[in-house]
Description:
The structure holds two protein chains of two kinds.
Chain A: H1 7-26, E1 37-38, E2 49-54, H2 64-71, H3 73-82, E3 85-86, E4 89-90, E5 92-96, H4 106-112, E6 121-125, E7 130-134, H5 139-150
Parallel strand pairs in A: 2-5
Antiparallel strand pairs in A: 1-7, 2-6, 3-4, 6-7
Chain B: E1 3-4, E2 39-41, H1 49-61, H2 66-72, H3 86-101, H4 112-118, H5 128-138, H6 158-164, E3 169-175, H7 182-191, E4 196-200, E5 205-216, E6 219-225, E7 237-241, E8 249-256
Parallel strand pairs in B: 1-7, 2-3
Antiparallel strand pairs in B: 3-8, 4-5, 4-8, 5-6, 6-7
Amino acid sequence: MPNRDPLVPLLLAVCVALGGMLVQAHGLPQGCDLPAIVSVAPIKAPGFRILIVEESNERNKLPASQVAIFTSAALTEYANEKCVKVSGVPEFRVFDQHTPLTSESETWEEAMAVARTSLPWLICSDGRRGFSGPLPKTVDETLAILKRYGG
Amino acid sequence: MLVINDDNWQEHVAPSDLRGRGYERRDRASWPVASAPRSRAFDLPIIARSEWDDRINELEKNKATLRHVLERDAIPSLNQGNTNYCWCNGVVTGMTAVRAANRQPYIALSPASVAAPIKNYRNNGGWGGEALEYIIDNGICSTKHWPANAIDRDYDNAQSQANRRLHMVTEWIDIDCDDRDCFDMVFTCLLLNMPVACGFNWWSHETCALWPVRLSAGRYAIGHRNSWGDDYGQNGFFVLEGRKAIPDDACVPVVVTGARE
């Protein structure tokens, strides 16, 4: 007779949930093609937001295609269209990891506090789900991730 | 695009040109490179010239230079009017570019709120590092609290002091312009989208370098924004070429505070 213990599905569900929490807490290894999808949004505030965290003094170590992401027209235009606006300004920021957030909202302080394992780091969130992982190497790859969450 | 070079530069320093300038030759004996308390010497690896074309192509293809950013956001050029505060306007242009690259909301910042207190409310010249040191320690006001060119103590009040603390620079790089690699250092910064406030002895003027320019194969120049309003050049943008592109003083605002009004 097969084991019909009613606890088995419950234990499986707990294992899957714990695995998801581990991925969320530690991200995925670099080079992994799977997105660091998290069912819990990296930014709790409602509305689609994008944050890139970088180290200005180490831009020279990045490929040219990645340096161009920060200020690219395609990303800016996408963010202008898709991101929620606060006082008319799209909620998209590119911050150095040492940027003091003098009078920025708590939302950005919270986003800057999300655990990172490398730089530059990409975070996007719609308040329900989102992405938190290494910034891809090109504008197109970055937009592909963002469009999964921001449409 | 207006290009100033070794052949035509004298047209741009004519005595009839009454627009404000004010860059004063930096006294390197009193102020050696990176001697200002908040500065550090240029310490980034210089990007090899063999990489320049590819990096320029990538920035141009993606419309990702600081000039593209300022144009896309319709951020106007500063206009220093009759003040001798170009040395501060150049730095503030750079700070504005960093904020725009951060995608922070545009705030018009007041060069006079920095330059006037430094010069004890006199309309005197200076150099970029003076402005950066002050901004790191004290911040800079928005023009809502201190008009851009107002040399007037009355604007130094509790409200403006609170406002200036919102807008600060936290790191700046001092480039050694006596180094024979000075041009390549400035170019490296621009390839990395770091603005460089540049003072020129030949012009007695300071402007802000914003983007790397390739004029033809192996011939490079530097794109700047002036502080003479949008009527100058192309919306304030112009290009310096040849020896005229090599600054006598150059400083890089690296990180600015994140702030909205």
